[in-house]
TrEMBL record:
Pathway: Protein modification; protein glycosylation. One of its GO terms (cellular component) is membrane. The chain crosses the membrane at residues 12-30, 109-128, 159-176, 188-204, 210-227, 247-266, 375-392, 399-416, 422-445, 457-479. It is a multi-pass membrane protein. It comes from freshwater metagenome. GO terms for molecular function: mannosyltransferase activity. PANTHER family: DOLICHYL-PHOSPHATE-MANNOSE--PROTEIN MANNOSYLTRANSFERASE, PROTEIN O-MANNOSYL-TRANSFERASE 2. Pfam families: PMT (PF02366), PMT_4TMC (PF16192). Keywords: Glycosyltransferase, Membrane, Transferase, Transmembrane, Transmembrane helix. It is found in: Endomembrane system. Residues 301-495 form the Protein O-mannosyl-transferase C-terminal four TM domain. Residues 98-263 form the ArnT-like N-terminal domain. This is Unannotated protein. GO terms for biological process: protein O-linked glycosylation.
Length: 496
């Protein structure tokens, strides 16, 4: 066993990350065009992306357009504006894939998202390598993200959340680089500016990116003050003025990050601003009086502000019941995963999508379910609790940074329990759950007295992760199987 571990370590050090990236690419790109149907909210974002690229704003579609769209008749939209409630950037990114491969190609609907999903695997490798100062532990983090079903499905679907997760991980990487430099001078922090750009891009995909902007900025302010405090006490005996430094450092951080993030966010609305057909684009401020503070703005920006007010009202009041809505308290345990696609075929019948004949007496099923790997998600709950306890006891910097990422992506949703929410929103903090798992595994290995046994245990855990991924792969990729095989994967009634 010792020789096996040594051999695996040599392979990992030489080729590990490239093998992991190859595996991640296969899981994200093989048969990416299946199903050739708009699944779940692709019905909004893919069609919005096409009109955005064609008109500069989201246009309207006739009633029940999906059948024609899926058949390749995509040029059936009108120039009339459509009311949408998410910023444009994610849809612009989806449009890049459509532009490259064609709107009549279902691979094009998902291609850009798949690329960013693959890039997220590489990013978490870079993050974990810096966070744990180890190439090997970086590879463990990349492997877990590469084979998790939640990440795989959100990388293979033309939705916004996988795009959001990419920009959040990118911002976190830049935050780590900024922390390494420990520079307190206002304009000598390029990595902090890069993080602000990334967070502006995240917010331009979904407004939940603003949570990360707020959490990361507060962390930077407090961290900078602690650095100042250590420097101050090294040269002074007078008490350190926390209040004044909070205002000064907070103002400095806001001066660096907020304008950069705002300009980045605003630039995503360029198409809407430079055209005249978008929803509310020709809003008359005289009809609905805006606050005096906004009267000096040019008319297009006043209209954009009004649009944001209406969209905000929609988001906070969204409480429409849905079969797959999931209370945020159950997200970490995957109590109600989202079924993106399900198609059943009776015995002896032909599947209308694949054309395959069902030859199993129980019938056949093809499903795409945004269900995570139980060995990752359920062990991740333990890891997060252990990490929180460890941070409370030690104030360890690494554990605090991981909890920061989790908290920014998860805690705000606990204040919106009356809102209609879905399990797949949690993909944005999945990377931080994985970092928590790696932290716990690494700590176990380094602090145990029997290192060989710890290595075997960790390898056994990673092996279990791979076994579960192989088992659940059919319901992540939509592979048609006998009905009884699909039913075998529904471990909890709420998964159906």
């Amino acid at each position: 066993m010792t020789k096996l571990i040594a051999s695996l370590r040599r392979i990992a050090e030489g080729y590990g990350i490239w093998l992991i990236m190859l595996l991640a690419a296969a899981l994200r790109f093989i048969n990416l065009g299946y199903p050739r149907k708009l699944v779940f909210d692709e019905t909004y974002y893919v069609k919005d992306a096409l009109t955005l690229g064609s008109l500069g704003y989201e246009g309207s579609w006739p009633a029940d357009p999906n059948g024609q769209f899926e058949a390749g008749n995509t040029n059936i939209f009108s120039s009339d504006p459509a009311y949408v409630v998410h910023p444009p950037l994610g849809k612009w990114i989806i449009w890049l894939g459509i532009k490259a491969l064609g709107a009549d190609n279902s691979v094009g609907w998902r291609y850009s998202v798949a690329i960013l999903g693959l890039a997220s695997v590489w990013l978490i490798y870079l993050v974990a390598k810096r966070l744990f100062e180890s190439k090997l532990w970086g590879q463990v983090a990349a492997l877990l993200l590469a084979v998790d079903g939640h990440a795989i499905v959100l990388s293979r679907t033309g939705l916004l959340d996988g795009i959001l997760a990419f920009f959040v991980i990118l911002a976190f990487y830049f935050l780590l680089r900024d922390r390494e430099q420990l520079r307190l001078r206002l304009f000598a922090r390029p990595w902090l500016i890069a993080a602000a750009v990334s967070l502006g891009l995240a917010s331009a995909v979904k407004w939940s990116g603003l949570y990360y902007l707020a959490f990361f900025c507060v962390y930077v302010v407090l961290s900078d003050i602690l650095i100042e405090r250590r420097t101050y006490y090294a040269a002074n005996s007078e008490p350190f003025n926390w209040v004044s430094r909070l205002f000064v450092r907070g103002g400095a951080t806001a001066l660096i990050t907020l304008p950069v993030a705002f300009v980045t966010y605003l630039s995503s609305w360029t198409g809407w601003l430079v055209t005249s057909g978008g929803y509310y684009r020709n809003f008359d401020a005289a009809e609905v009086k805006l606050p005096a503070a906004f009267e000096w703005l040019p008319a297009p920006l006043q209209a954009l502000w009004h649009y944001h007010l209406q969209a905000y009202g929609f988001h906070v009041n969204l409480s429409t019941p849905h079969n797959y809505q999931a209370n945020p308290f159950g997200w970490l345990l995957m109590l109600r995963p989202t079924s993106f696609f399900y198609e059943g075929t009776a015995f002896g019948a032909t599947n209308p999508t694949t054309g395959a004949l069902c030859q199993d007496p129980s019938g056949c099923s093809s499903a795409v379910t945004a269900l995570g790997n139980p060995a990752i998600w359920w062990f991740g709950v333990f890891a997060l609790v252990a990490l929180a306890v460890y941070w409370v006891r030690t104030r360890n910097r690494t554990s605090g940074l991981i909890l920061l990422g989790l908290g920014a992506g998860y805690l705000p949703w606990l204040t919106l329990l009356n809102r209609t929410t879905f399990q797949f929103y949690s993909v944005v903090f999945l990377p931080f759950t994985i970092l928590a798992i790696v932290f716990v595994l690494r700590k176990y290995l380094h602090e145990t007295e029997n290192r060989e046994r710890a290595q075997k245990t960790i390898l056994a855990y990673l092996g279990l992760v791979l076994v579960f991924s192989a088992f659940f792969l059919t319901i992540w990729l939509g592979i048609e199987t006998p009905y009884w095989w699909w039913r075998l994967h529904m471990w909890i009634p709420s998964w159906i």
